[in-house]
């Protein structure tokens, strides 16, 4: 056992505990960003929805505004894979491989090896 690998009372090394804490911190940060993006994207729609139902007829909203509010919310679904790809290397590699295979005009994909090559 090296000097950097002292054991705690449970027998686990402090280095392993630090690694575990970093992984949990990274997961919590990613989850916080996912939840924050959800709130930012859907909060305008739900504020409008509640306000309209409380206000009644006098609070008519142009259909363009309603459409924009919906699309901001829908945009959240496009953000999620991008956020996961940014914070998770395994997800990023799988996402990149899927995109490369899905765009045959730009890439050639060999499904047997799971690799893609730019054409």
Task: Explain this structure.
The chain is mainly α and 119 residues long. It contains 3 helices and 2 strands. It has helices at residues 14-55, 63-87, 89-102; strands spanning 107-110, 115-118. It has a two-stranded antiparallel sheet with strand order 1-2. Strand 1 (107-110) and strand 2 (115-118) form a beta hairpin. Helix 2 (63-87) packs across helix 3 (89-102). The mean pLDDT is 80. Keywords: Cell membrane, G-protein coupled receptor, Membrane, Receptor, Transducer, Transmembrane, Transmembrane helix. Pfam families: 7tm_1. One of its GO terms (biological process) is positive regulation of MAPK cascade. GO terms for molecular function: octopamine receptor activity.
Write a brief caption for the model:
The chain is mainly alpha-helical and 119 residues long. It has helices spanning 14-55, 63-87, 89-102; strands spanning 107-110, 115-118.
